[in-house]
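Lecture notes, unit on protein representations.

Consider one protein chain, 117 amino acids long.
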Amino acid sequence: QVQLVESGGGLVQPGGSLRLSCVLSGGIFADYIMDWYRQAPGNPREVVAATSFGGTVTYINSVKGRFTISRDNAKNTGYLQMGSLKPEDTAVYYCNLLHRITGYNLWGQGTQVTVSS
């Protein structure tokens, strides 16, 4: 059974950093394109970083220069490195994987990030 699990969220002060992870089990991470989303209370889910089939990553303007996605296919793991965090970054963050061939779409359970002093 294919499963995706995120971790790394927590409470951080403004200006701080966090690294979120998403680990795939039951599948081959290299077969998937990885995006990251977030959803703040009362808001729709929004894409934070999206990867094209060519490998280009596009970030929403509000996180450009502060967030970076990366992956370690050997570990079946993807990452979202977040820096210079702001209170408006508070949300549940989700990793999303899209299989390059089948189009199978996989979501993790989300991890809460709270930026507050």
